[in-house]
Amino acid sequence: MTRPLVLLAVALAVLAVHAWWTPPLPRPERLLRTADGAAVTLAEALPDLLGAEVVFVGELHDQPAHHRAQLQLMQAFHEAELPVAVGLEMFRADGQALLDRWVAGAIAPADFVLAYYDHWNFPWAYYGEIFVYAREHGIPLVGLNVPTETVRQVAQHGYASLSPEAVAALPPVRCDVDEVYEGFIRKALGMHDARGRSFTNFCEAQLLWDAAMAANLLAYREANPGVRLLVFAGSGHAWKRGIPEQMGRLGAAPVTRVVLPELPGRVDRRSEPQGDADYLWLDLPLR
Questions:
Q1: Are 146 and 170 in contact (CB under 8 A)?
Q2: Are 259 and 40 in contact (CB under 8 A)?
Q3: CB contact burial 268-282 (16+ within 10 A = b; e otherwise)
Q4: Which of 145, 141, 132, 106 lies closest to 227, judged by CA?
Q5: 42-51, 53-62, 166-175: segment of lowest average pLDDT
Q6: Buried b (16+ CB within 10 A) or exposed e, 105-141
Q7: What is the tens place of the pLDDT at every residue in 64-123?
Q8: pTM of the predicted model as reported, rounded to 2 decimal places
Q9: In what order do the strands lie in the sheet with 84-92?
């Protein structure tokens, strides 16, 4: 995003930070419970979700309806009066101090929006309601991501190309995936400029993303026992084979639930989604 567009976004954020307009989702909200194929409302699914220690909520980054669904779950957890924090793919772990200042009301909206664009390149308007709700209700936000440069280096040259100092700060990674995840990675590789990139390197980069976010989640849980975690991340990280599996590989087994938006032809009610998610959020309009 060019600087003029960033400045325009900041100006709009300052004017509208307390006046977000949220188009309503279809009522009642419908989710597919994959364990038995039953369509349930959010209210019916909520006791199960509230009983989990970590709930992953997937998204396509450019779909506003997915972020409104995430906000609804965030509101439901807050209204249940349980201690909750929200983990974010959208912020690197090195931005934690900024997130803490935002939630504490110690940074101006314009300054925070500029910081947001240093961490993420999708429009602030897609995520603004989530950040504002966290600030207004004192809900901790947790940066989970790793520097883009690190992931890019692994994708191009492999995990072994990282310096000893970089490796010391990261979980161990190797390309060890099942057939379904391999297919996902190969499809993702095909959507990128694959020249000069091997499958193994690209696979290691994807798993590094998952494993690093898993490690950051576990570190937060260890420092904050008893806090429920909602995790907002791309569906390719939030599904069961992504961050949840990497948490298990790191030796932790918290009670988790995965909620993904239904994506026709990818993850939908006809594709045996139980291996991907515990719930599919149905009827979310695609932009």
A1: yes
A2: no
A3: beeeebeebbbbbbb
A4: 141
A5: 166-175
A6: eebebeebbbbbbebbeebbebbbbbbbbbbeeebbb
A7: 999 999 999 999 999 999 999 999 999 999 999 999 999 999 999 999 999 999 999 999
A8: 0.89
A9: 38-41, 30-33, 279-281, 256-261, 54-59, 228-234, 84-92, 141-145
